[in-house]
Predict the 3D structure of the following.
Amino acid sequence: MNILLIGSGGREHALAWKMAHSPLVDVVHSTPGNPGMDEVGPCFDVGVTDVDNLEKLALQLEPDLIVIGPEAPLAAGLSDVLRARGYDVFGPSREAAQLESSKAFSKARMVAYGVPTAAYGEFTEPGLAKAFLRTMEAPYVLKADGLAAGKGVVIAQTLDEADAEVDEMLSGKFGDASAVLVIEEFMHGEEASIFVITDGEGAVYLPAAQDHKRVGDGDTGPNTGGMGAYAPAPVVTDGIMARVKREIAEPMLKGMARDGMPYQGVLFIGVMVTDEGPKVVEFNARFGDPECQVLMKGLKGDIVPALLAAATGGLAGNEAAFEALLELELFEPTATVVMAAKGYPGTVEKGSVIKHVGKANDLPGVKVFHAGTDMNEIGLLTANGGRVLSVTASGKTLREAVDRAYAGVDAIDWPGGFCRRDIGWRALERG
Ligand code: AMP
Ligand code: GLY
C-alpha cells in the first residue's frame, strides 16, 4: 500500500512511523512532514490547508489511503474533496468535523443525542451572555465557538473576569471563531482522552490516555497543546470505559449517522470523570497530540487495517477482528515527554541547535518523535516551533516507561528547550 499522510507534528511522525511498520505498507508519503518523517518516507512541501495542491499531490501519488492528521484541513473540507475524487480517506467530512470546529454544534448534538456533558448556553449578545453568567456558579467556563488553536477556552474565577471575557470574545478576540460564545457549567473531576476509530457505524476503542495541558509541573501555568501524555490511564477503569461506549460514543455515532453526517475517522472524546460518571469536555475530529505518540508507540499490532476500514467501511460487525490485529491486549505502558522551546506557549525563538536525538533513540524502549524541528543549512537539527520533540518510551510498567522517557530527555543536548518533569504523576500517585 501507498499512503499519503497530511501533517507535520509529533502526532503525524508517530502515525507515519507506526504505519510504516505495517506489512501492508510499502511507502508512507507525508506533506509537509518534518525531519523525523523524512526518515520514514518522502516528504512534500504542500501545506495542510492548501486543498487544491493537496488534491494535485494525491493525483500524482495515487495513494491507496490518505490519512489526515490535524483539524484545520478537516474543517476546510479536505476529506470531502478527496473522497469526491474517489480516494479512501481517514478523517471525517467537513460537516461531521464540526464536532470539533464548532463548540455550539457539538453541544447541540450532545443534547440531541442525550450524551452527558456540562449544561450550557450559546450567545452572540453580550447582555444575554452576562445575564446567563448570573444564573451560574464560579468558576465560569467560556468557549469561543470556532477553532482558536487551543486558546479559545477561558476559565474565569470571578464574575468581573467572566464579563470582561464576554466583551472581548464577542468583539472579535478570536475573529470569526469567537463570534459565537458558549458558556458552560464547570465540571469537577479528572480528565482523560479516549480515541474511537470508526467507519460511522462500527467502532474500535484504543486504550485511554491522559494529557498534561498546563505548561508547568504540578499542572500550573497557562494551557498548552499538551506537554506530555501516558497510556493506559487508570482513571478510566473498565467500568468507566463501558459507560463511555454506551452513554457517549454509541449514541453520538448513531445520531450523527441518522442525521446524515456519518462520522468516519477517529473521534477523540475528551472526558471528565466526575462523581456522576464520564461527561464530555470536548470532541476532537483527529488524534490528540501528544496522546497519539503514546498510542502508536505502545501498540504492538497493526493499525493500518483499522484505519483503512474506518475509511472504507467494514468495521461494523468485525470489531473483534480489528482489535485482534491491533493486539490491544499486548499494549505496553507508554509515556511521552514533550520538549518545547523556551517561551512556549508564548513567543519562542527559532533556530537553536538540538544534539544527540540519536543517542536518545538508542536507549531501551525510547523513540523520539519530531514536531517543530528543521534542518539548518549545514545539516544540523534545529528548533522551529513551540513543541519540538516528543520523547516517548514504553516499559513493563508506567514507572519504567516514564523513567525511560526522562532518560531519553536527559540524553538530548538542547539548551534552548525545556520540559515538564512530572509526566504521569496522577497515575504514578495511584500506585
Ligand atoms: P476544551 O478545549 O474544550 O477541551 O477545553 C480546554 C480545557 O479547559 C479542558 O481540557 C479542560 O481542562 C478545561 N475545561 C473545558 N471545559 C470545562 C468544563 N466545563 N469544566 C471544567 N473544565 C473545563
Ligand atoms: N492533546 C490534546 C489535543 O490534541 O487536543
Q: What stands out?
A: The pocket of glycine (ligand 2) is lined by residues 211, 226, 284, 288-289, 291 (CB under 6 Å). The domain at 2-91 is CATH 3.40.50.20 (Rossmann fold).
